[in-house]
Design goal:
Length: 125
């Protein structure tokens, strides 16, 4: 696979990349599926599929849709309360302007762990 092309398959490396970026979202902050995907190089739907299947061991409650709405808000809410994330007036999620992660910082925080994966990836497919 050429580095210029986005990853579109749910292979082991892509799964691990998504999980590592989610782990890098700071407590009290959220990132949208598309923002996580932009760091990894995949689309938001793939991020959602990966989190649904393998996300139980990472802070999944910190990933929302682009509007800050969370599909599992009832389950995420106790964790949000602990981290100081408040629900916006419509009751569906949080305000991205207030709780959205700094994407530059997220890229920087996840860069080292993502680079480790590239070093471990076999060069021949």
């Amino acid at each position: 696979m050429t580095p210029d092309l986005p990853r579109t398959r749910m292979d082991d490396v892509t799964v691990e990349r998504v999980l590592r970026v989610v782990e890098a979202i700071p407590a009290g902050r959220v990132a949208a599926y598309g923002e996580v995907g932009a760091v990894v190089g995949v689309g938001p739907r793939l991020v959602g599929r990966i989190l649904r299947t393998w996300g139980s061991g990472v802070p999944w409650w910190r990933v929302t849709n682009a509007s800050g709405d969370h599909p599992l808000l009832a389950r995420a809410l106790p964790r949000w309360e602990t981290e100081g994330i408040t629900v916006k007036p419509n009751g569906r999620g949080c305000r991205m302007a207030e709780f959205g992660a700094d994407l530059t910082q997220l890229r920087q925080e996840s860069a080292a762990s993502l680079a480790e994966l590239e070093d471990e990836t076999p060069s021949s497919h």
